[in-house]
Structure formats: structure tokens, C-alpha cells
Amino acid sequence: MDISKAKEAVNAAKEKMQKAIGHLETELVTIRAGKANPTMLNQIMVDYYGAPTPLSQVSSITTPDARTMLIQPWEKTMIAPIEKAILSANIGFNPQNNGEHIRINVPPLTEERRKELVKQTKNECENARISIRNARRDAVENVKKMQKDGLPEDVAKDTEADLQKQTDAFGKKVEELFTKKEKEIMTV
After folding, report:
1. CA atoms of 105 and 109, how far apart (whole Å)
2. What is the pLDDT at residue 94?
3. Can you give the pTM of this predicted structure?
């Protein structure tokens, strides 16, 4: 049995773990931490002539200050659909439209809301940890199959140790992301 197959299993697992971290980072960006950030609106889809379109593709989103977001639609006719999409997204924002653009004042977070956001962050981090562990499990099963097909036992053990090392490193990265986001949320 070729040793490179074992290395491929480790690399495939590492790639899956990296994707889990990437997904976690994307999800954490959308969790509001009190400051205005255009990425908070990434999930919002606007009805653009019958087609659901991301808000960022029908307007420019700027943050003139830490508590305000300004949405400037490319077309004035899009103001009402954008406003409707923001309200229906149920993300706690109340858009104000002056006929030219939409202004969103980001309210300061209450203590209760901060705790909810930390809980949400914890759930996202746990999902990432589960994905990382699943990637390790799949790779270990793959290595065990290879061992049955003739992979030397010492190579299999080394590969499993390497997989565990990768899992621990990615788990630590998840923990760092959680700690950073929790601090960001809880900072008043």
C-alpha cells in the first residue's frame, strides 16, 4: 500500500477542517457586535425585478460612523424593495428612507441581547468543532481501510497521530475565534 494515500487522507481532512474554519469566520462576521458593519447585511436578498438578489449587488453600503449604515441604491426605484427586504429579514434594524438613500441606525446592544449573541456565537463554534471532528473521523476510517488493504501499521498510527494534531490545532483556532468574538460582543 502506498504511503502517499495516507498523506492524501490527511490533506483531505485538513482541507475540510479549513473549510469549517472559513465557514465559521463568515458566520461570525454576520453576528452583530454593536458597531455598524456592512457585512451584517450580507444575508439580505432584495427582490430585483422578480429575482432574489443580494443587497450588495443593487446598492452600495457604507458606514459613515460606528452607529450608522448608509445604503445607496443604484436605482431609485429599488428603495422600497430594499427597505422591505431589511424589515422582513428580521435582524432588528429599522431602516429610514429619505427618497435618496436608506439610513440604518444600529442601536446599542442590551445586556440580554449581548448574551444571546454570545450563545449564538457559541453554537456556530460548536458546529465548526463538529465539522472538524467529522473530518478527522472520516479520515481515520479511511486510514483503517487502507491498513486492511496493506498499509503498514506504524504508518497508520503516525497518520492518525497527525490527524489528531491537525484536529487539535483547528480546535484551538475555533476557540481563539470564539474568544475574540465574545470579547467584541461583550465590549460596551
Report:
1. 12
2. 84
3. 0.73
